[in-house]
Design brief:
The protein has 14 helices and eight strands. By secondary structure, the chain is α/β, with parallel strands linked by helices. It has an eight-stranded mixed β-sheet, sandwiched between helices. Helix 9 packs across helix 12.
Length: 334
C-alpha cells in the first residue's frame, strides 16, 4: 500500500527500507535533501521536498507515518500537515511522544476528521533486519486500516519461539511483534514503560560489571583480588545463562571492541521516557524502586562537581572529624 513517511534518521530510513522490501510504496520527506535522494535511489521511494508536497502526492485517504523527535518537533510537523489533509486521513506517530500528548492530539485531530494512531516503536539501529516491536494505540478502524504497514515492520511470529503455554494453540495478540494495546495514548504508554524497564535492565548490567571490575583494585586483599576478563564473562553469560539478552549481546560487543570502555562517556543521557515512567508511577501510586534508581543513577553521572558527595564528606568531617576516602587512583591509596 501507499504510505507517507516523515523523518529518515536513525530509525526512519531503515523503516522505509523495510517497507519497500515488503512492496509498500513510500513517499518520504526529511530536511536533508541528499538523504532523501539517496534513499529514493536505493529503495524506489518517492522523495518530497516539503510536507505539503508529500501530502499532495498521496492518494486519499492518506496514511502518513511520523518518525521525528518527541515534543515540539512532532507538533510542528502535525501543524504543518493538517491544512493539507482531509477527513479520513490517518497520522501515525511512531516516535517516543509522551502518552498524554498523544491523547490530546487524538482529540484535536478527531475534530478535523483525521485519525491519529500512537505507535511506540522499539528496534533501534537493528530493526531493518530484526523487525520493529510495535505498541499501538488508537481507534479500531484506523489501526485495522494500517495493519499491512504494521505487519511489514514487525518481526513476525517466527522470530521467537512460541511461549510454552501457547504451543499448538491459535495465534495470540502480540505474537507477530505488533499489538493494538488499546485506545489513544496506550501505545505510547506501553512504550514508555518499556523504556523505563530498559533503564533498569541496563543499570543492573552496569552495576554488576562495575562490581567485577572493582575486584582488581589494589586495596583488595590479595587472596580475593581478581583481574577478571569482563569481555569473556559477557560471552559466557550470553550462552545458557538466565540473564542472557539482546542488551547483553550489545554489551559483549562493546567490551570485545573496547575492553576498557574508555571511548564511551561516563555521562549517561536520558531521553525522557524513564522520567515519564517514574512520574506516572507516582501519579498512580505504584512503587518502582528499580526504575527510579536507574533514572537517578543517570542523573548522578552528570554531576561533574560531585557536590552531593563532597558535602557528605564535609558534614562527616565537621560533626565527627571523619576523614574522606582517598581517590581510587591516588598514589597514596595504592
Amino acid at each position: 500500500m501507499e504510505v507517507g513517511f516523515v523523518g529518515l534518521g536513525r530509525m526512519g530510513g531503515n523503516m522505509v527500507r523495510r517497507l519497500a522490501r515488503s512492496g509498500h510504496r513510500c513517499h518520504m520527506f526529511s530536511l536533508d535533501a541528499a538523504e532523501r535522494a539517496a534513499l529514493a535511489e536505493e529503495t524506489g521511494a518517492v522523495p518530497c521536498d516539503s510536507l505539503e508536497a508529500l501530502a499532495a502526492g498521496l492518494t486519499a485517504p492518506r496514511i502518513i507515518w511520523l518518525m521525528v523527535p518527541a515534543g515540539a518537533p512532532t507538533q510542528a510537523v502535525i501543524d504543518t500537515l493538517v491544512p493539507h489533509l482531509a477527513p479520513g486521513d490517518t497520522l501515525i506517530d511512531g516516535g517516543n511522544s509522551q502518552f498524554k500528548d498523544s491523547i490530546a492530539r487524538f482529540a484535536a485531530l478527531a475534530d478535523e476528521g483525521i485519525a491519529f494512531v500512537d505507535c511506540g516503536t522499539s528496534g533501534g539501529l537493528f530493526g531493518l533486519d530484526r523487525g520493529y516491536s510495535l505498541m499501538i494505540g488508537g481507534a479500531d478502524e484506523a489501526v485495522a486500516r494500517a495493519e499491512p504497514i504494521f505487519a511489514a515492520l514487525a518481526p513476525g511470529i517466527e522470530t521467537a519461539a512460541r511461549t510454552a503455554a501457547r504451543v499448538g494453540g491459535p495465534e495470540a495478540p502480540g505474537e507477530q511483534g505488533w499489538l493494538h494495546c488499546g485506545p489513544a495514548g496506550s501505545g505510547h504508554y506501553v512504550k514508555m514503560v518499556h523504556n523505563g524497564i530498559e533503564y533498569g535492565i541496563m543499570q543492573a548490567y552496569a552495576e554488576g560489571f562495575a562490581v567485577m571490575a572493582s575486584a582488581a583494585r589494589p586495596e583488595m586483599a590479595e587472596e580475593r583480588r581478581y583481574v577478571l576478563d569482563l569481555a569473556g564473562i559477557a560471552e559466557v553469560w550470553r550462552r545458557g545463562s538466565v540473564i542472557s539478552s539482546w542488551l547483553l549481546d550489545l554489551g559483549a560487543d562493546a567490551l570485545a571492541d573496547d575492553p576498557s570502555l574508555e571511548h564511551y562517556s561516563a555521562r549517561v543521557a536520558d531521553s525522557g521516557e524513564g522520567r515519564w515512567t517514574v512520574h506516572t508511577a507516582i501519579e498512580q501510586g505504584v512503587s518502582v524502586d528499580v526504575l527510579a534508581s536507574a533514572l537517578f543513577a543517570r542523573f548522578r553521572s552528570h554531576d561533574d562537581a560531585d557536590v552531593a558527595d563532597r558535602l557528605l564528606s564535609a558534614l562527616r568531617y565537621k560533626f565527627g572529624g571523619h576523614a574522606g576516602v582517598p581517590p581510587i587512583h591516588d598514589p597514596a591509596a595504592a
